[in-house]
Give the backbone structure.
Amino acid sequence: MSTKGYINLATTFGRRSATRKIKIRYLVVDACMSYNALLGRSSLNKLGAIVSTPHLAMKFPTEKGEIATIYVNKKRCPRVLCSGAKDDCKDK
Amino acid sequence: MVAEIIPPPRKARTPERADHSKHCEYHKNHGHHTEECIELKDKIEELIQTGQLRHFVRGGNERMKQSPKREPRSGELGERRSERFKRKDNRRVERRDERRGGRPEARNERGYQNKQSVRRSRERSLGRPVRDFINTMLGGFSGKESSSARKQYWSNVRIVNHVFKRRTLPPMLYTDEYFKEIDPDHDDPMVITVEITEYTVMKTLVDQGSSVDILFWNTFKRLHFKEEDMVPFREQIIGFSGERG
């Protein structure tokens, strides 16, 4: 799998007032995946996120120093809902 | 014989100001007696803990059967040690007898010892003998794009005196209230929604196994970026999880 390039983008985690914005260096990859983006260790560490897969939740300290929790999307099934990068692949 | 079960030490020369009246049989140098040799004691202790010297340890057989991983109490340890060293002189003879007898157990031990030297340090950390190690190579982009930057990072890690800024994080706790799933045996992936620039991006996979953060090309286009906006970087990433391109 070859990469196209990389780009630094401000990414915001959390909702309403409980947010944290960090700059993430994304590798741009031309691949058919059902996901839009993939967050790896480096950005999770930068965010200070503690991920719990049994709870399907992620906690991180917000800019105000509080702890925010984000849950996995309710409509999460990657095959059915909300178009991901893969849906566009058919056009090529 | 002893050398077979205890791997030889790293070559240690006699220190310049060492006491030449003391000789270490294990290190083959001067400065301390064999009985005082800390490294040798550790090696023997390791063998006892792994059960390879159980016939030399008083009550060792029963103990091993009852609870193989049991940590010895401090007083006991001292007692065992001293006893071990009293028996030290006999060891050579006893081991030789074993060889003549050709006990299968002893033979296994020896065959196992051959590949031992590389594993020694790892086994110490695991506290028990293992058959083999499967090494994993890991690496990746990690935001350090040049190999020299990566080397710099790793050399910094190795230098003991290099001070990394201490990081603090508030305690983060998960209690049962955080279980929102209906199915307790789910194996769903961590897929969340984030905001990248001004766009809400759903279906963002949190992948703790990945050393890189990836934005897929189609998503990149949908965020209304152009090819010129990114820094060209053409390299292979391997071990890409799941789907094929």
Q: What stands out?
A: The radius of gyration of chain A is 15 Å. Helices of chain A lie at 41-47, 85-89. Residues 76-82 of chain A have pLDDT under 50 and may be disordered. The longest strand of chain A covers residues 3-15.
